[in-house]
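User: ok so my PI wants both of these folded by tonight, can you help

Assistant: No problem, let's get them done. Here's the first:
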Amino acid sequence: MLNISNNSILDKVDTTALDSMNQNGLPKAHKMVSLWLLALLITVLVIFFLPWTQNIQMQGKVTTYLPEQRPQEVNSVIAGKIDKWFVKEGDLVQKGDTIAFLTETKAEYFDPNLIERTNGQIVAKRNSMRSYQSKANSLSVQVKALKEELAFKKEKLRNQIKQAEFKLESQEAAADQARLESEIAAFQFRRSDTLFQKGIKSLSDLESRRLKMQGTEAKFVAENNKLQGSLNELAISKLKLQSIEAEYLNKISKAESERFTTLATY
C-alpha cells in the first residue's frame, strides 16, 4: 500500500474493515503538541502588537527640556543675556528664523541714537559709492581722451616722418648734385692750371676757376650738412613716435589700473 503505482486500488478496498489502517493515524499526544504550538505562536504574535517600553542602562546627564531653564553661554564683545527663547528642544528651524532675544546686561550700554547713527552711516556709504562711481566714470573719460590724443599725436608724428623722408630724398639729390658740380669744378681748375703752366690760360682765368671750385666745394659741404640734418630730423621723429607711444600707454595703463582699483573698492 505504498501508492507507488499510478493505478490506485483504494476505491476497491474497504479500509474501515482493517484494524491496521485505523491504527496508522497520529496519536493524541501529537495532536496536543500541535495545538500548544499553535496557541504559543498566536500568543507571540499578539504580544508583538501590544504597546511596550524598552529600557536600557547608560551614563549621562539630566537636563531640562526647555532651553530657558538651563544655563546658556553667549560669546560676544559686550556682555549680554538671553531675555527670551522662541524655540525649544527638537523644534525645526530655518535660516533667518529668530531663535532668541538678546538684551544688554546694563542699560548704560544702550545707544539711544543707534538708528540715527546707522542711517548716517548708510548715507555716508551711499555718498562714498557715488563718489567712487563718479571717479570711475571720470577715469573712463580720461582713458578715452588719452587714447584719442595718442592716436592724434601718432598720426601727426607719422606725417612728420613722411615729410622728413621726402625732405631727406630731396637733400640726397641736392647733395649728389653739389658733389658732381664740385668734381667738375675741380677738374676744370686742374685743366686751367695745366694750360696756365703752358702759357695758354691767363692768371685771371685760373683764379676764376679756383673761385668756382671753392664755391662748389662750399656748396657741397653745405648740402651734406643739410643732408645730415634731415637724417637727424627723421631719426628724432621716429624716436618721438616711440617715446610718445610708450608715454601714453603708461598713462592709459595707470588710469585703467586706478579705475579698476576704484571699482573694486566701490
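One down. Here's the second:
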Amino acid sequence: MSYDTTVEGYLKRCKQRRDAGSLQDLLYAALELRLGVEMRLAESVQAVDGLTVARRRQWKVVHLANMLQTVKWSNGDDVLVMLYHLKDPDETFELHYFPVTKRLTETVGRLGDFLHRNERLVSDQAAVHRELTTLVKEGYGDLLMASSGELLGLPQLDPKTGSLNVILKFPDGDPRAAALQDAFKSGRQYRIDWVTITPVGQPTFYDAEPAAAASDSEGA
C-alpha cells in the first residue's frame, strides 16, 4: 500500500494516531501533523511567482511561512474570499484561501521538540502526554481549516499582462470545478471581488461524537 503524501493523507493518519491516545501514538500523530503542515505550506509557496527552484524546495516550516509573508493580498492570518461573478447566465462562486496560521506554525515548532531526543520523555511522561494531547488536537483542527479552502495559494497578479493567476483545488466530484473550467474555456465574461477577513481571537475545535448524539436522540 502506498503512503499518501497529500495533506488529507497526513490529516487522516494524524487523527487515527491521536484517537488511539497512547504516548507513542501521539508522537507519531505529531510527526504526521508536522509533515502535513509542511505539505500545506509547500502548496501555498508553489503559487508564489518569482521564487527560485531552491526556495520552492525549502522544507522548514518557519522558512516556508516567512516566504508567504512577501505576498501582499493578505496579512498573516487573514482569510481571503474570492467572489467570482460569471455573466450569461449570472452565477457567483465563492472561493476561499485559509492560511497556515501563526499559531499552527508555533504548534509545529513545539511538537518538533518532542520529535528529537528530549529528557522529558524520560523524566515526566505524564506531563508530556497531556501537552501532546493538547498540541495535536489544536494543530489537527488548525491544519484541517488551513486545507479546507479551494485556493491553494494567494492569487498572483502578473504586472506585465494584468492577468490573475490562481491555483484551485476542489474535492472529487465538486460540480464547481467543471463549471469554472467550462466558463474559462468558453470565455464567459466575469468580475472578481475580494473580501479579506481578519480573525479575532483563536478558534476552538470540537470533535463530532456521532455515537453520543445517536444515543441522545434515541432516548428522546
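The CA atoms of residues 51 and 99 lie 19 Å apart. The two ends are 44 Å apart (CA to CA). Good luck tonight!
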